[in-house]
Amino acid sequence: MARTIVVTGSASGIGKATAELLEAGVDRVLRVDLREGDVIGDLSDPAQIERVAAEIAERTGGVLDGLVANAGVSANSELSVKINYLGTVQLIEALRPQLAAAEAPRVSVTTSAATLQGNDPELVDLLLAGDAEAAIARGAALAAQGPEAGYANYSSSKRAISRWIRRAAPSAEYAGAGIGLNGVGPGQVRTGMTTELFASEEGRKMADDAMPAPYNGVAEAAHVAAVHAFLVSEANARMTGQVLFVDGGFDALRRGDDIWQSV
């Protein structure tokens, strides 16, 4: 039976590939993006997020089977904070009542293997505490220190959303309502964001040094889309609170086997 799935950031890259894959099956996809799609909105703006959620409700009749919360940016500024964490969480929460009304609701979030890279603990803590104003100010301060410090806006926003998934997934609001909540953490992927990086040998070496992918190298957007499609399917009946790294082995190299030690 056809299910209705919202895909954000659907105009390009992983979002576009995911929407196309879902549409190639029997699912109905509502595309959400900044400038083109079924619903248009800036997910860095809290007021627009509420409007987007209301427009989705009008189109779904208040029942939403799935959400691929993919919209994000790789900016070394507070824009990463606004979209990758604050906007993503706000939209998921705004759509939660529609998801809870469905028979087999699922959410899959695009996070990143950058979750495992250097981050700013203060910024991560502010985001998880829900202090949007202070988090944005911290992000702006990091950006003002230059590109290296500014990158922490991106990695910290991804670390925070990955941790939020783990916190929220087993809660009464999500697991208790039958809503599966997971994430996908891409490593090196060929998308519009990485075109310039992969265009030169220097850029490719820089990417490989920072995030090696020993298993089959750089991914295509479709490889990540396939994981999102499974996570929002009815077939995913028991998995929740997981971040699946589609990274060619970077997670295994970065963390080794110590994540399985007793705590």
TrEMBL record:
Domain of life where this protein originates: Bacteria
Pfam families listed in its UniProt record: adh_short_C2
SUPFAM superfamilies given in the database record: NAD(P)-binding Rossmann-fold domains
Family named by the database record: Belongs to the short-chain dehydrogenases/reductases (SDR) family.
Name the record gives this protein: Short-chain dehydrogenase
Origin species: Brachybacterium avium
